[in-house]
Every structure is written in C-alpha cells, then in structure tokens.
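Entry — protein

Goal — fold tokens:
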Amino acid sequence: MSTRLLLPLVTITLFGVLSALALMDVGYWSIIAPHFQSWGGAQVFTDLVILAVLSCVWMVKDARQRGANAWPFVAITLVAGSFGPLLYLEMGELRASAGKPVSA
C-alpha cells in the first residue's frame, strides 16, 4: 500500500475516533458552541470555515479536470468538515490505482 493511500486513511481513522469521542462526550452543538463565546473562538471557527470553503473550491476544480463528481465530498465537508477533503483524497488515490475518475 502506497504512502499516498495510507496517509489519508490513517488520518481519517484517527480523526474519526477523536470526533466520535468528542460527539459522545459533548454532542454536536457543544463542539461548535465554544467558538461563539470569545473572539479567539470566533477566529478559529472563521479560519476553519475559510479552509472548508477553499477545500470545496479545490475539490470542484480538481474533479472537473478529472471528469469526476466532487459534490458528494462537498456535502460531506459542509456537514462533517475535514472528512470531505480527506475522503476525496482517499477516493482519488483508490480511483487512480484502478485507473478510474474520482466519484462517490
């Protein structure tokens, strides 16, 4: 298994475990709520939103060049953050190794 295939998979797995633990501990809203309690939290939240939007723009542009569909990954990004781009990278590597375009 190549590093380009393994690295996103390990990241998805570890981040998934962390996310599951956080959801079980405090719930979805309580993960987001602290970002609205201070300017520092607002800055971090805004930074993450900017990164999510830039990731979506990149995925759509990249998918168009490859003749693929990025919209399922954009939807995942809007709901679950980093999981969308990570899954897009993973699916891209899987499809590349099989000689197919990226799609969900």
Summary: The helical segments are 3-26, 28-32, 39-66, 71-80, 83-98. The CA atoms of residues 71 and 79 lie 12 Å apart.
